[in-house]
Each structure stands twice: as structure tokens, then as C-alpha cells.
Amino acid sequence: MKELLLSPDHRFAVVQSEPWMAEALEAIQQASFPSLAKDELITAEHYRAHMRVFPEGQHAVIERESHTVAACSTDLRTQVDLNHFQHTYMEAVGGNWLTTHDPRGDWLYGADIGVHPAFRGLGLSTLLYTARQNLVRRLGLKGHVAGAMPKGYATHQRSLHIEQYVAKVVRGEMFDPVLSVQLKRGYNVWGIIPNYLEDPSCGNYGVFIVWRNPNMAPGAKTEG
Q1: Helix 44-53 and helix 22-32: axis angle, to 10°?
Q2: Residue numbers of the domain that contains 62
Q3: 118 forms bridges with which residues in the sheet?
Q4: For residues 89 and 206, is the Cβ–Cβ distance under 8 A?
């Protein structure tokens, strides 16, 4: 396995996902999204398909000594119209098969990211976001977008509208276990997506986030 990125202590490495990892990736998915609708969960078979469709966009974090798969992320290339960003998760990812991947797409779309509970708090999501942003730079794409799951919203939805909750998270007045991390990685909130997916932890909402490639000159062509 080619190591794409190392953690500061060299304990973990980001690598390109490989078929032998598929069952472990499914286990991470189930542990990361326990309340997500079953038909929206990514399975081992889906992950193997992702590796065939767009291998560069599939990342895993490996504990180097044990070769344990500790975290993972899934991305595809797509075209993005920032004036019309409303969509559902399943539409964006082709029913979890990545049939929507466009090899000439000028944006990277974050379909999935998860860290196994046994390895949380070790900076592994930061490693994955760095690897994704490195891929955007290497391919010369405009940036990285995703439908973030505001997973802390469930406990506040009786007292706050989703727009109020997100605004408080953006201002640093409230912490969201997903969105707050993404904001620290340089992402900006673009808008709210109702009925993005089926998960009560986020009230079924998605938050459309955007990270722009700082190396991408306006009007520059992307690698295709």
C-alpha cells in the first residue's frame, strides 16, 4: 500500500482503499451512522464498486503496526451549480453506487466519512480531510463540497430552527460533532438542504458546505 499521508506520530497512514478492506469499511459505516436509514448505508459491495469507479477518491486510514482499518472516506467527481445546490444524498451518489461520478467533473463531492469509535479523538478525520484537499489540488479541481450532517441538531430541534442552529455553530456558540470539525478544516456553509437523507440525529437535514481550492485560478481548466 502506498502511504499518502502520515499522522504526526506516524502511528496512522492514509492510503487508497483496497478491496480487502471492504468489510471493515462497512463496519465503520454502521458504527458511524447508527440511526441512518438502512437503505442509505454503504455496504461492502458498494465500497468495492467505488474502488472500481474512482479509486483515487477512496481513502482509508490504517493503523500501521496492526494494519487495522480505523477510518475511511468516499468521494466522487461532479459538476456543481452553486446557484442550485438542493439535492438528496442518494441522488448525489447514484444510490451509493457512484454511478453519478463524472471523470471530467470539476468539483470533488464528499459522499462519506467515518471514524471507528475505537479510534475517535486521534485526529483521523483531519487526516482524511487533508487527503481529500490534497487530491483536489493534485487534480486541479475547483474545490470540495459535501452535504454535512449536523448530527448535534436532534437535541436542539424543539427550541431552534435549523438555520438558527447552524448559525450558532458557525459563530462558535454551539458545537456540532460534524459541522464544527468541517468549519475548522476551512469549509464554509453555503446553504441548508431539507430531506437530504433519513436520519433523526440531524433532523434529515444536510448542510451544503464548500471548500475552494486556493491554488485554482479563476477560469482554469481541470484535469479530465
Answers
A1: 120
A2: 3-212
A3: none
A4: yes
